[in-house]
Amino acid sequence: MPTVISLEHLFMKFGERKILQDINFSVEEGEFIAILGPNGAGKSTLLKLLLGLYKPSSGKIFILGKEPRRGNSDIGYAPQHRMLEADLAIRARDVVGFGLDGNKWGIALPSKQRTQKIERVLREVGIFHIADMPVGKLSGGQQQLLLIAQALLTDPKILLLDEPLSNIDIAHGQKVISLLTKISRERKITILLVTHDINPLLSVVSRVVYLVHGQCVSGKPEEVITSEKLSRLYGTSIEVIKTKGRLFVIGEEAS
Amino acid sequence: MWALLHYSFIQNALLSSAFVAIVAAFAGYFLLIRRLTFAGHAISHIGFAGAAGAVWLGFDPVFGLLLFTILGGIGIGIWGNVLRERDVTIGIFLTLALSLGILFLFLYQGYAEQAYSILFGTILGINTQDVFITALLSIIVCGLLLVLFRPLLFASFDADVAEARGVPVRFLSIMLLLIIAVTVSLSVQVVGVLLIFTLLVGPVAGAMRLTQNPVVTILIAMVLGIFYSWTGILFAALTNLPVSFFIATLSFGVYLLIRMRELLI
Amino acid sequence: MIALLHHQFIQYAFLAGTIIAIMCAIVGYFVVLRSQAFAAESLSCVGFTGATGAAVIGISSLAGTFLFTLFVAVVMGLLGKKMKGRDIEIGLVLAFALGLGVLFLKLYTRNAAEAVGILFGSILSVTTYDVYVSAITGIAVLITLGILFRPLLFASFDADVAEARGVPVTFLGVAFMILLGITIAEAILVVGVLLVFALIVAPAAISQHLTNRPTTSIVLSVILGLLFTWGGMLLGLAFHVPVSFFIAAFASVTYLVTVSVLHYIKPHIYHSFEHPGKEL
């Protein structure tokens, strides 16, 4: 399998604040990776570096063999979701359409081909029935699916998702996860997904990247999420409890 | 009533207000979806100082308006991001601008009449040269908005993703403030500094309640804007009451009707 | 210059200006604390309709302003949280109120100067009646505020916790809006509809940048309010320029200078680590 993303000795600082320190890992094509870690560990910053929105302070990033750059249509991105305002007057299909050509100048001329592309993605994600609803009226889960549909429109090779599972209930979360597994299999897309909670994803991810205080370990979930590895990473005693196929990290937020 | 249409001052007023209504609806749409209404309000007040300054120095107020609104737009674009508590800061700038305006007008003779007309509009006193300037600027602004349309819409709804897709988000937000600045300058001639909301926000706010499609929203808003200003001008000419009163009443009344219709359905 | 101060109308102006400045600074403290700057501005716009409407039905302009600002203040207070994020609706109502004001002006006023007086203040033409009214209302507002002080402060900082502790948050909201309405009607007398920000928001905003202690902040805000008002009146008289110009210019320049200097001295207060790339 070819390598699609590689990070070499990556450092990132904002002013005095060190966000990432010496991050090294690489991702192969078709992998489904969960990026884990406590608040403020630098997870979202890592995604923005991959998108080329920030420049690393030092170190190298390669995406599909090149340095990251803005506007790379090989990468689909769905940001950390916030509830849209209820009276936002725009339809779901307009929002998805941004994914196709929102970065081009001028008005989008109505064309059959454009409509078909948009509708195909809406069907693939399973939200075709809400295409003409105002986005503000959609539920959190539907809005999340909408963002994923938008990210898929350019036929990306890599999908970066920032907390797609927060703010939605378990049933919708399962829907998003099975959708993601389906597209990663059918389209051979590499997925990097930032999350707080690994449990719903345990059976589907190929590896996890665990970020703490700007440093990381990566590997299979059962190898990384262990008391020993996390204690070393946090620099304090951390306990991982495994029960009924679920993992619980104790002492994480206190550190 | 139809005889009114033969007067050249009425023709001038109808013509330029139509241009203004179109631009105001177009720019107002973006003002609304980006939640910049307070900034629009602020820019118009800053324009007051500019217009007053121009009157004092003996220039056409339109040039003073344009200069100050554009500077104000750039200022808000740069400072707005840096400062917290934006409302208070903008409010303070407004106060400073208004007080400068009143100083300039005081220095000029005929203080009160000029202040009155800048604050509440002078569409019936508009001359052919003003119509020409208005038309020209309106066409430029509309052209610019057409070119920027898609990325601007994208950036307005989801700045993060737009930036990741290579849309120059920061450039667009400054451009939009410039466009709003010019639009405000044009609208001030019709409804005055204090009633800028009636043309810039009113028609779009109403149209948004009727449809979700951005292009249709803007078109409806343009039609509404032209309807408000033409009706306002004709009523004002017939009754000899202020134009801006009629436009404000229509703008508010139609919006109210649209909201009531929602309640009934 | 000094001789001017012997004129009775100027003494009245100073008396009224002083009372109103104190009142505005104290009420303004809560306006800034509760982030109600926009509400203050709205009330003053409505005051314009009141003042011009009063002329049409033949009552004093101060009385008209009172009636209108009070009415709208109660409505705004009752709507309370529902007002949040409704700038568009508020903006349209305000535009309509101003439009009505223009109509009233046209229907009644003798000249444009009167309109400009309402918009930009006319402190030098206050009457004995105005002085009495502002003294009485000023004292009443301050006493009421004294009674409400602690729960209002609590509710302004954290409405949810205050409510849980049994503070009547909605009642306080309405009561405060009424006080604000009265204060704004008075402020319009000094600086006019368009410049009330200078007396109500600016002193309080400056002092809240300088100190976090409520009492110190209120005292400082009163001192600043008085300095702006007195300075504005003296310079206005000396140079024969509108008083409200000087008051507003002092207030806004002081605010901008204070904020800029603080930015320079204590940048950490303002740059509490924010991700770059956040747009308007």
Write up this protein.
The complex is a heterotrimer of chains A (255), B (265) and C (280). Helices cover 29% and strands 27% of the residues of chain A. By secondary structure, chain A is an alpha/beta fold. In chain A, the strands form three sheets. Chain A has a six-stranded mixed beta sheet with strand order 5-6-7-3-8-9, sandwiched between helices. In chain A, strands 2-1-4 form a three-stranded antiparallel beta sheet, with helices on one face. Chain A has a two-stranded antiparallel sheet with strand order 10-11. In chain A, α2 (92-101) runs parallel beside α4 (140-152) and α3 (112-125) packs across α4. The termini of chain A are far apart. The model of chain A has no long low-confidence stretch (mean pLDDT 84). By secondary structure, chain B is mainly α. The N and C termini of chain B lie far apart (37 Å). In chain B, α1 runs parallel beside α6 (128-157), α1 (8-33) packs antiparallel against α11 (214-239) and α2 packs antiparallel against α3. In chain B, 62% of the residues are buried. Helix content of chain C is 80%, strand content 0%. In chain C, α2 packs parallel to α4. The longest helix of chain C is centred in the middle third of the chain and has 30 residues, at 128-157. Chains in contact: A-B, A-C, B-C. Chains B and C meet through α2, α3, α4, α5 and α7 of B and α2, α4, α5, α9 and α11 of C.
List the helices and strands and how they pair.
The complex is a heterotrimer of chains A (255), B (265) and C (280).
Chain A: E1 3-14, E2 17-28, E3 32-36, H1 43-51, E4 58-63, E5 75-78, H2 92-101, H3 112-125, H4 140-152, E6 158-162, H5 170-186, E7 190-194, E8 207-212, E9 215-219, H6 221-224, H7 227-234, E10 239-243, E11 246-250
Parallel strand pairs in A: 3-7, 3-8, 5-6, 6-7
Antiparallel strand pairs in A: 1-2, 1-4, 8-9, 10-11
Chain B: H1 8-33, H2 37-57, H3 61-82, H4 86-107, H5 111-120, H6 128-157, H7 159-164, H8 169-191, H9 196-200, H10 202-208, H11 214-239, H12 243-264
Chain C: H1 8-33, H2 37-57, H3 61-79, H4 87-107, H5 112-120, H6 128-157, H7 159-164, H8 169-191, H9 196-210, H10 214-239, H11 243-265, H12 267-270
